[in-house]
Amino acid sequence: MAGLSIPSSSPSLPWPLPDPNPSPSSDDQDSILEHDQRPPEALLPAEEDDIQEPPSSPPPPLAVQNPNLTNPIDQPHPSLLHISFNQDHGCFAAGTDRGFRIYNCDPLREIFRRDFDGGSGGVESGGGGGGGIGTVEMLFRCNILALVGGGPAPQYPPTKVMIWDDHQSRCIGDLSFRSEVRAVRLRRDRIVVVLEQKIFVYNFVDLKLIHQIETVPNPKGLCVVSQAPGPMVLVCPGGQKGQVRVEHYGLKKTKFIMAHDSRIACFALTQDGRVLATASSKGTLVRVFNTVDGSLLQEVRRGADRAEIYSLAFSANTQWLAVSSDKGTVHVFSLKANTGITGNDKPHDASDSNQGSPVGSSLSFIKGVLPKYFHSEWSVAQFRLHEGSQYVVAFGHQKNTIVILGMDGSFYRCEYDPANGGEMTQLECHNFLKLEEAF
């Protein structure tokens, strides 16, 4: 990958000037829109095939240099505040107590970093300028990112979403709110901001508010959006415990799914928005749904003990589902959702927790006699990690591989056997915060 860039030939797009006396409407009291006075050169990202280095301008520096700093290898390593994959899982972003870093997954390498010097841009934006970045949301591989301050010394206020243009190495606009931002999701045409009990959807071109959704308390900022071309599908917690809400913007339809009896802890959506995987606070079962009609396609079991699910991820072909939890094991499950429901595999009502899974083990013929545990669908492959650490997982671009990121800075690449299953094979293990020392 050459870098994060948008062709310099992209046309300038409108960027509204701030209202000197903003007076938000009664139904938008949680949101105050603020923008930079100068319009960005190209806010809307280019198509993936068009992304390349501008031929007439030199590439941006790999880091914001501070002449008072010594060799980075001699500096203590920063504390991680955030890690997340980009939309195609080809890159990942890390927010630290000093700034943020962007990495390529395959091969693993640091693309660039931005270490703030304790005041660059933060004070002007109303923040403390301490350098901490608690959220970094990439948009595929382009130069536009969304940043939210975090940690004990945030670079920006945690109530603002800063739109960062890495071509200019500065923020070109911001969205300001009355409560802390829990998460940000980006598409090429939308910016989605998640607060504790409300979600705002903005048009990317002009940051016009086009929708807002009220949710149950959502401290984790749970929200996913489809990334395939076409109208957006958005999934968020519903209005009651265990419920998810699916917004089909193309169909102009809202679907509520009672996914679990306990509160929703994690979910994942396929790129086209058609299939949804959910996990509850119990963390024992993962359910897979059709987002259009809400039918339960499949149910798989992570384990018998309670666990906190950290991440769920679909493979690109929706044939596999990966799950990470605080139990220290990453599981890969085989899915049938990619082939649809046929024969006797009819949809089940997910709200009935006593129903059996759509596909069981060899004991399924006596599922009415034995406890549900014995006819559950179990994972095909597993990889053991340190129990208690927080990890997020995604499928790699190499066939039958997964990539695991840890909040301790760990990076694993593993291979699973789709035919025989069992323990995965570790291909790589690095600390991505110490790549200067490793390579």
From TrEMBL:
Location relative to the cell: Preautophagosomal structure membrane
Pfam families assigned: PROPPIN
Main location, first listed in the record: membrane
Bias (Low complexity) ranges: 1-12
Membrane-protein topology: Peripheral membrane protein
Ranges annotated as biased composition (Pro residues): 13-23
A single GO cellular-component term on record: phagophore assembly site membrane
Region annotation (Disordered) ranges: 1-80
Family the entry assigns: Belongs to the WD repeat PROPPIN family.
Record-given protein name: Autophagy-related protein 18a
Organism from which the protein derives: Acorus gramineus
